[in-house]
Each structure stands twice: as structure tokens, then as C-alpha cells.
Amino acid sequence: MCKVQPGVIPNASTLVNVFTPPPQLFDYGRQTMAAFLLFSHCVRVQNVLSYRGEFMQPFRYHILLCTQQKPENVPCCAANGANQVLAALQEQLAKQNLANEVIVSTTGCLGACEHGPVMIVYPDSVWYGAVRPSDVAEIVSAHLKDGHPVERLMINDDAALRNEILDHRAGYRAVMEEHDRSGVLPEELLDQIRGFWPSRALLTALELDIFTAVGNGGSAAEIASRLDTDPRATEMLLNVLVSFELLSKGNGTFRNEPTAVRYFCAGSPDNAQPGLLHQVHLWDSWSKLTECVRTGGPASLTRRERDEKSTRDFIAAMERNSRERSAQLVHAVGTEFTRMLDLGGGSGAYSIAFAKANPHAQFELLDVPSVVPLTQQYVQCAGLESRIRTRAGDMLTDEFGEGYNLVLLSAIAHMFSPEENRSLLARIYRALSPNGRFVLQDFILNSDKTSPKFGALFSLNMLVNTRGGADYSEPEYREWLSSAGFREVRRVPMPGPSDLIIATK
């Protein structure tokens, strides 16, 4: 056991010498975290309350829970139910009124995989092993609330634990060195290459509406009968969905897990299945990526003319995305306007949010003829048809009118070429009243267009789905806006993958 004086923190070099993992171990836990964790185990001091008062003032306890997922058949905390333990821990902390007294952090591998899931309670330096969700209520009540560690779950043999961690480190180092010598493709690269396997399986499940068909449960044959699909193939797909923890299986009966019930079943208020069918449609487009890279774009865009169902699926997907961000957008932009134009507003989620926040403003929403009837349905459901007017139009050619205090262009610019965006911004400028504001929301790339990663990938999505669209960088937007006559151009960071650019006429 490490000998540490109560209330005294060793210097950094001492900590690093305790446990210095090889570079390959960074995926299983960064060096400083590993050193810190071992140190926290070594500090078995008698004056815990004094130590806690001096070094842990923000929270009563800090819990570290390993949730490392390793390759299949390799022992790890995640495979032993660490995520279920995490969910139970969060639930019990809230239930026992300790959510604001205890901070919980998930970690990479702690090196005690055979004991997983592993939980460390700091500053008491108590290591718990083989924790199950059913153990969590006792840990929270006895240890975190009353200060009495749960002895039956504690890993008390410090020497054995230390040796296990060091053996794990040495074994993992040997495996990585052997992989490197043999030229074996790194697992993370292989996962990227075959990442479409789970994606396609889940997309097929959504396309078939399997989770609704599972309902209250059934055998593979029963579910296949409800879907009018092949029983053998259906069972194979159902088994995969069990491995995704979206279904459970017992005695040949499949049942929906709570996540599937909430997000993928008809009748749930949070059912995302209709909107996610847009991703199913994108599968066909992305399958032509190689051809698009060779030729510069899709061979034909005639098939992009969506039928009624795919249009409805697309607008449902956009509505869900917009609804999630609408409150943030309203907060960032404010409500100091009387007349707003929402270009390509789709479901009208942003106009609806602004209308609710600003009861005195009037709104106009422009979209293509096939979308406007759907927009009107969303607006009517919100009871705002007297304040939100809709009109069909073409953003590439139309003049938009004049006298608007605010023009919103959300998730539209990436569909157009640079030349088309220059023309669009010039017409938006003419539509604004003096001192009116233009708000653009989109995936904004850095100057060399390599990050954020989602934005770079989304550019490929535009390559396979549009004639000249792409994601653009902040310098590009600034130059276009300046050329159109805008001033006071500023970028407003937002949570999530897209940001705002706001400019004034």
C-alpha cells in the first residue's frame, strides 16, 4: 500500500511514477487520470472528514465509474452492466436527494476488469467491485448518505488490486506491441470501415416499424406475421436488436426495452420513427458516393423530386430537429422585431417558437409548393394560422418583398452553391428594413474545412444530394455578407453541431 500523509498531496512526479501506462493505454484511461485513481486508492487516511473538508468543498463525494466498452469477449465493465449501474446511480441520487451533493464521472479502464463494474468513491478511497444495479440503492443510502461503506462490495486487498492493475497494463501493452509488429489493422479503423452494419440493421428495423410490431411482445414467428416478413430473417434481425439493447429476449419472446418504447413505437409522444425514415432515404444517396466523387456530383437529380411520403418524412425529421433547438434560437436572437420572414421554414417550428415568445409580431414563411401544405398543418396545430402566413416560392429566383425586421435562413445555405448563396443573400438584404437583422443557422466549418467532423461529413451529404451544395466556412459567409452590404457580422456559438451568424443591414 502507498504511504501518504493525511491531508498531503504528493507532487506530480510521484503520482506518475506510481502508474505510468504506455501510450497505447490512453484509450483505456489517460495517464493523469490513471495516476490520480491509484493515488485515491492509496490514500487511506483516518481523518477523512478533515481531508474532504480541505480538498472536496464543491461536493460531498465524487464517484468514478468505469464504463469502458472493449471488444466482444474481452472482460470489461460495460459488458458486465456498467451503464445500467450508472442509470440506477443517477436515479437513486435523485430519489434520495443527493443529486446536488454527489458528482458522478464515467471513466475508461481502471485495470480491474475482472471485478467489473468498478466504482470508486472519493475522497474515501473506497473501491467497489462487481456492482449490480440492485446494489446501488444500498451504496447511496448506507455510504453516501450515512457514511458507512458497504463492506460486502468493497475490494479490500490493496496489494492484490495493485498487482491486478499492473498485470493488466503489462498484458495490454504486450497485445498492442504484438498487433503493431504483425501489422494488424487497428480495431478503431476496422470499426469505422464496417460501421454501416449496425446502422443498416437499425434503419431496416425502423423502415419495417419493427418496434411497433413487437408491441407487448411476441415470438419471431408472431412478429414476422405482423410484419408480413420472412420468419427466419426476422429472427436474425430481432437478435441483433437485442444485442443493441433495444429489445430483450426471454424464452423465445422478444420485448421492447424502454428506449425503444419511447422513441421508436407508434403512439409514444416522443416517437422519432417517422422522422428517422429520412435517414433511410439517404442510404440510397450515400451508396452513390464513389460515383459522385469521380464525377463531381449526382448523375441525375430527377429522382430527388420527393414523393409525398418521403417529403412528409423529411419535414418530420426537420421538425424534430428544429423543435429541439427552437428555444435556444429564440434566446440567442431575441424578440425585438415586428415582422419576420422564415425562408425554407419547413414545419414552421422556428416561426411557431418566435410567435409564442413574441405575441405582437407577424410572420411569413416561404417554402417549395410540395412543403407548404405540410407547413400549414403544423401551424394550424399550433393555433397560429392568423399570425403565420405561408407562401410557395423559389428561394433561388424570388424577390421576397420588403420591410422585414428579421429574416431567418436555417439549414438552407448548405443546399446551394456559392454563387446561389451570393444571389440569395443579396435578395435577403433588399427584403430587410434598415437596421433589420439576418440570422443564418447552419453547420459552419473552420477555415480549412476539416472540422467539426459532423460538418465535414455533412458536406458529403450535400455532394450526393444536391447539384452544388456544401457546408461553408465562417470566412466564406463573412465575405458573402460583406459583399451583399451587411455590417456587424458576428458568429454566435450554439449547443450542438450548428452555429449562428447574425448580420445587420
What does this structure look like?
It is a single chain. The chain is of the alpha/beta class and 505 residues long. Strands 9-8-7-10-11-15-14 form a 7-stranded mixed β-sheet, with helices on both faces. The chain has a 4-stranded mixed β-sheet with strand order 2-1-3-4, with helices on both faces. A two-stranded antiparallel ribbon has the order 5-6. A hairpin with a 2-residue loop joins strand 5 and strand 6. Helix 10 packs across helix 11 and helix 15 packs parallel to helix 16. The longest helix has 26 residues. It is globular and about 75 Å long.
Attribute tags:
single chain, 505 residues, alpha/beta, seven-stranded mixed β-sheet, disordered N terminus
Write down the overall mean pLDDT: 87
Which structural class matches the secondary elements?
alpha/beta
End-to-end gap: 69 Å
In total, how many beta strands? 15
Spatial shape:
globular
Major β-sheet, in short? 7 strands, mixed
Strand order of the largest sheet: 9-8-7-10-11-15-14
Number of helices: 20
Helix content: 40-55%
Oligomer: single chain
The parts where pLDDT drops under 50 for at least 5 residues are 1-54
